[in-house]
Design goal:
Length: about 150
C-alpha cells in the first residue's frame, strides 16, 4: 500500500500532494448529485451578475478534492476511518479551470483507546492554487492502522 501507517507518521511531518484542474463538469455534476441548486454553482447568468462575475465551484467538492489528493500518500490502504473534519474555511473562491494542489501537516498523534491495532492522527490540510492562494483549509482526524509486527 502507498499510504502511511500510524507508526510512520510523526508530528511536524509535511507533505505536498499532487494537483488537479477543476472542470465545469466536476462542479455541475457534483452540485446535481448532491441536490445543491445554488445558482452561484449552476446558473452562469445569475453568477455573472454577482461580485464574482462567474460560477463558483461548490465548496464541498473543493473539500473532497483536497482530501482525495492526499489519499495516495497518506491513507491508501492504511486507514480505518475518517473520524471528523474541523475548522473548515474557504478563504478564496475556486472557479472552473483552476488547478488545486493539496498540502498536509501532521499536527497531533495518539494511541487509540479502543483498538490496539490503530492510532489517531490529526492532519491539517490546505488546498491551494498554483500561486499559493488558499482555497480551503481544515483539520482532519483519521484512525490509521499500525504496521503488523512480524
Amino acid at each position: 500500500m502507498t499510504g502511511k501507517y500510524f507508526d510512520e507518521l510523526e508530528v511536524g511531518m509535511k507533505f505536498k500532494h499532487g494537483g488537479r484542474t477543476v472542470t465545469e463538469m466536476d462542479n455541475v455534476l457534483f452540485s446535481a448529485l448532491t441536490m445543491n441548486t445554488q445558482p452561484l454553482h449552476v446558473n452562469e447568468d445569475f453568477a455573472s451578475k454577482t461580485e464574482f462575475g462567474q460560477r463558483l465551484v461548490n465548496g464541498v467538492f473543493t473539500l473532497g478534492l483536497v482530501v482525495g489528493l492526499t489519499v495516495s500518500e497518506l491513507t491508501e490502504g492504511t486507514i480505518v476511518a475518517n473520524l471528523g473534519y474541523d475548522k473548515v474555511v474557504h478563504p478564496n473562491p475556486v472557479f472552473h479551470g483552476d488547478t488545486i494542489y493539496a498540502e498536509s501537516e501532521i499536527i497531533e498523534k495518539r494511541e487509540s483507546k479502543s483498538r490496539k491495532d490503530a492510532g489517531i492522527v490529526r492532519i491539517k490540510c490546505w488546498g491551494k492554487k498554483p500561486d499559493g492562494t488558499i482555497v480551503v483549509e481544515f483539520e482532519r482526524t483519521v484512525m490509521f492502522l499500525k504496521q503488523e509486527k512480524s
